[in-house]
Amino acid sequence: MTTNRESIATANMAAWPIFLLRIYAGTLFAIHGWGKVSREGGFGDGMIGFLESNADKAYDFYWPLVEQFVLPNKDLFAMLVGWGELLLGVALFLGFATRYAALGGMFLMLNFWFAKGASFMTASNYDAVWFMIFMVLAFTPAGQIWGLDRRLSYRIGLLR
After folding, report:
1. What angle do CA 146, 91, 70 make, to 5 degrees?
2. Helices 98-116 and 126-139 sit at what angle, rounded to 10 degrees?
3. What digits encode the pLDDT tens for the residues 2-42?
């Protein structure tokens, strides 16, 4: 007869690709977020350069939002992007609040994607690829696989 502990171990072993995807995404986003947060002088000017260089390619419905809200508040949005990437990366790496971190990643990727104006089926649209990776992490029990979500979900119901 199989014990509960053995069945959990077997399920975790079968889900190792999700675990690797979570660790990879977490590491990458934590590194890039830290680079933005710790940059001397802030990330605002770099973000403005990115947005302005893509202004002619951005989706028509998205550019007015950038012009009216993001550009006038560049330091605030640069801080939100940098800290968002860093915290998202750390949460994914630790497997803590994984679904919420992945949903935040999906939101970030949609914004990057809309700013660049790339088609979903364009081979160079890595924002769409990251969007799909975050979707997998959000809709699978990725944090339950060798992550803090599994350890804490009995105390914090939102982590299930």
Report:
1. 155
2. 160
3. 566 655 555 556 788 999 999 999 999 999 999 999 998 88
